[in-house]
Amino acid sequence: MSMSIDWLSRLLGMMTVRGQLELRCSYGAPWEVIYADSDAGEMPYHIVLGGSAVLETPGGKPQHLSAGDIVMLTHGSAHTLRDGSGARPKPARQRAALNLIISENKGAGERLDMLCGRIILAPPHDRFVRAYLPARLVVRTSIAKGRGQGAALEQLNGLVALMRTESIADNLGGYAMMNALSAALFALALRASAESDEAPAGLLTLAGHSRLSPALAAIFNEPARDWTLPELASLCSMSRATLIRHFQNKVGRSPIDLLTSVRMALAANELKRPGVSTEVVAETIGYQSVAAFRRAFSQHFDMTPAHWRRSNVETQQARVED
Questions:
Q1: Among 39, 123, 178, 190, fewest CB within 10 Å belongs to which?
Q2: pTM value?
Q3: Strand 32-35 with 42-50, pairing
């Protein structure tokens, strides 16, 4: 008997996700932390355990963060976190603790307690995240229950509590534990956002739309099927034009664009497997013509399947040599 798997599990299953908890900040106001653009595939995250912070990104509006808030910069954008006083920040000093770095200052104002790390996605899945998730994902775990997120927020609070404990205790295996919990944080943050009544723009908005979710599930569960727009629209009990309009309004892309993106992500995974021919990969993800698959792959990634396979082998060899 085949098992039914939800779309988010499918998404996370096609990605290689790693987490890394790097820093615990203990600041008194005034303070400031500045992050440059991250390397490809890296998404910084911050968890406000106590106190408050103001998040600023180039071209974006400042956003106030309170205790219990989790923010992920899913596009790896440059950003600044600071207190709201406007005063010149006190310099911070870092010291090495077991399994992470502690950053402290001598500010005497309101105290901030914050965990900082990053989610790391193997290429090319970082491209998918940039295309379908908002650049700034904020989950407020302290909001009142009954707004569509109760269970997921409780789980997030439990996870954050465990991360807090691991960050201050010299437990055996603590480094591995904190990194594993960071990866779980990514999955739970997406779940909580998708279940929210105020889901952010992008793929998570589609998931929260009851009439559109059947198309989303179909694309992730059967990406190799030759889906047409009328078929996907019929699953959602709406016209083809209405389906396209909803996708454009919420994601900025068409259902077929999403289908192609999922197929290409799966193809990239298949091409990593030694001994699997391009013809087999094309058929596996729903292309009857190898030429059509090569054309679609090249348009999506700006390189041929053969080039992608070679570059992945070279990357793996370089990691082994390092």
A1: 39
A2: 0.90
A3: unpaired
For 61, residues 6+ apart whose C-beta sits below 8 A from its C-beta are none
Segments of 131-238 assigned E as strands: 137-140
> H or E stretch including 37?
none
179 lies in the same domain as 42: yes
pLDDT tens by residue, 221-256: 999 999 999 999 999 999 999 999 999 988 889 999
Contact of 193 with 204, CB cutoff 8 Å: yes
Helix, strand, coil shares, percent, the chain, to 5: 45, 20, 35
Token pair recorded at residue 23: 């820093």
Pair of tokens at residue 137 = 């994902």
Question: What residues contact 278, with CB distance under 8 A and at least 6 apart?
Answer: 271, 290, 293, 294, 305, 306
Q: What CATH number is associated with residue 193?
A: 2.60.120.280
